Known about the structure:
Layout: E1 13-14, H1 25-41, H2 46-64, E2 72-75, H3 78-86, E3 96-100, H4 109-112, E4 120-124, H5 132-137, E5 144-150, H6 162-171, E6 175-179, E7 198-202, E8 214-218, H7 220-223, H8 263-279, H9 281-301, E9 305-307, E10 320-324, H10 329-338, E11 341-342, E12 344-346, E13 349-352, H11 360-374
Parallel strand pairs: 1-11, 3-4, 3-5, 5-6, 6-7
Antiparallel strand pairs: 2-8, 7-8, 9-10, 10-13, 12-13
Amino acid sequence: MKHPEFPLTDDLIYLNHAAVSPWPKRTSTAVIKFAEQNTQYGSHFYSDWLAKESELRGQLRTLLNAPSVDDIALVKNTSEALSFVAYGLEWQSGDNIVSSDEEFPSNRLPWQSLENLGVEFRQADLRSAISPEDALFALVDNNTRLLTISSIQFATGLRLDLEKIGAFCKQRNILFCIDAIQSLGAVQFDVQAYHADFVMADGHKWMLGPEGLGVFYTTPEARNKLKLTQYGWHMMKDAYNYENKPWEIHPTARRFECGSPNMLGIHALSASLSLLLETGMAAVESLVMEKSNYLMDRIDRNDQLILLSQRQNQFNSGIIVFKHKTIPNNAFYKYLQKNGIICALRGGGIRLSPHFYNNNEELEKALTIMELYYS
C-alpha cells in the first residue's frame, strides 16, 4: 500500500532519492496555497511568510542538532555554501586541504580552484587503508588547514565515521567541513557530536524538498573566520532599516544571505521537513536502512549481479550500487528506466536509493523487473 504522502503514478517505482526526490503531497499543497495567496493578495501576508522562514530555521536546527537557529543560513545550494568557505578563509601559500578521491564535483572544484593561491588539494584513496578515516588522516600534516568530506559518498554509498573524523580534527585544530547532502533527511545527524565547523546540504534529495534552497551551518567561531564574498541588504544586522547608514554585518549565520529569501522554496522545504520530523529521524533512518539492507541482501544472493556497495554494519547508508556480470550498465539502466524503475548510473553501476516510504512490495516488484531482463 502506498504512503498517503507519496501518490506517485502506478507505473513508477521511485528509487532515486540520492539524486532528486519527489515531493510529499503536503509540499505540493503548500506551494499551491502560497501561489494562490500571491495571486490574490500579493505580499499582504508577508509577516506570515517571515514566520514560516523562522519555522524552517528551527526545523533545520533540529535536523542538524545545531545549538541555535543563529547557526543556520538559508542558501541556494551546497555548492554556494562550499564556495563561501573556500573563498572566505584566508589562505597562505603552502596550506593544504585534505579530502577524498570520491567527492562529487561540488566538494572538489571550489578547493581545486585555490591551487593558484598555492593551496594544495589532497585526495585520499578511501580504499587504501584499514579504514576510510585512516586514509584521510594519513594525508594530514602541519600545513593542513581544513578537512572536507561528504558524509556519505554519492557514487558508492560509503558512509564515514564523522565522530572519529571530527575528534581528530578538533585535537589538531583543523577545520572540519561536511557535505551532508546524502545524509540529511536519510539518517540522524549531529553537528555537535561531529565537532563540525561547516555543514551544508541541498534540500532536493533526502530532505524531499525543492531545488534551489539549502542549509549552511557554521559555528560562531568558524563563521567569524570567513570574510564575506557577497553583499546585500539582507545580510545587514538591521536588515529592514533601509536607511541604515553606517551598517553592520549580521552577527548570526544570516550574514551569508545577501538578498531576498526564496519564499516559495521556504514554504516547500518547511512542508517537506515537517513530514520527516513528524515521522522522527530515528524511525526514518531505521526504515531507510531496512529498505537498503533488503535490496543488498537480494542483490548479493543473485548469481547474475555484483553488489558494489560495501556492507558497513552501523555505517550503512541508503545508497546501493550494483551491476550485472555481463550486461553493460547503460543497457541495463535504460531498461530499468523504460520499465518505471527510477534509478541512476553511478559508481560504475546502477545506483538505487530508497527512502523510508518505499514499501517492500515496490522493492520486490523492482527486483522482479530486473530479473525479467536477464532470465
